[in-house]
Design a protein that fits this description.
Number of strands: 10
Oligomer: single chain
Structural class: mainly beta
Radius of gyration: 13 Å
Strand order of the largest sheet: 1-2-3-4
Bound molecules: zinc ion
Shape: globular
Strand content: 35-45%
């Protein structure tokens, strides 16, 4: 079990230094690694309130209704879902939801 430390209104980090945000469409958290260490690594603008991650975040996982894909750009505190997402917000851009400690 990973312990999360809330970093800002929208971001949390783990002990290993990974950054996590809540995905409003998957209704789960996605995480990225930044800084030195094993690949893959993402760039982070250092802004915890309005984070920008590069490149895009792509997550595939198995759910009760089959395989789901989530592909997004996190830019300036907003999350842009790309057209290859399997969920409802594909093609839309929304604000990052507030981090909830019990997530
Ligand atoms: Zn997602």
């Amino acid at each position: 079990m990973t312990a999360f430390c809330r970093l800002s209104r929208v971001l949390a980090k783990s002990e290993e230094g990974r950054l996590f945000f809540e995905c409003p469409d998957c209704d789960m958290i996605h995480g990225i690694s930044h800084g030195p260490g094993p690949e893959p690594r993402w760039g982070w603008n250092g802004d915890a309130e309005k984070p920008t991650f590069t490149p895009s975040v792509l997550v595939w996982y198995r759910w009760t209704d089959g395989d789901r894909g989530c592909h997004s750009f996190v830019t300036d505190g907003r999350i842009q879902f790309l057209g290859d997402c399997t969920h409802e917000l594909a093609g839309q851009t929304v604000d990052l939801p507030e981090w909830e400690d019990d997530a």
